[in-house]
Amino acid sequence: MAAIRPILCLPDPRLRAVSEKVGAVDDSVRALMDDMLATMYDAPGIGLAAIQIGVARRVIVMGSGEKGRGAGAAVFRRSRNP
Q1: Spatial separation of the C-alpha atoms in residues 2 and 42, rounded to whole Å
Q2: For 4-21, how does the pLDDT look when each residue is reduced to its tens digit (9 = 90+)?
């Protein structure tokens, strides 16, 4: 189950941390992205970086800003920064 996490705001020093590269997208990365999507849609927003929720990993999520536009419609994209 995805969790809504607090979003950090400036001048929080954690936002300046250097994020770690992500190798393989495993279950822990998928769970992070699920939390990030839940947080992003709750905000509401159309994009969120892991560092914005205090996780220093190079992961972002992006969405259309809409939820469910029909059966099977993909309304968001999960990305990993190489």
Answers
A1: 12
A2: 999 999 999 999 999 999
DSSP secondary structure, the chain, as one string:
-----PPP-TT-GGGGSPPBP--S--HHHHHHHHHHHHHHHHTT-SEEEGGGGT--BSEEEEE-S-S--STT---EEEEE--
How far, in Å, CA of 81 to CA of 58, rounded? 6
More confident residue, 33 or 76: 33
- Contact yes or no for 58/21 (Cβ under 8 A): yes
pTM above 0.85, yes or no: no
Distance of CA 61 to the CA centre of its chain: 4
Q: Rounding to the nearest 10 degrees, give the CA dihedral for residues 15, 17, 19, 20.
A: -150
Residue at 62: amino acid letter? M
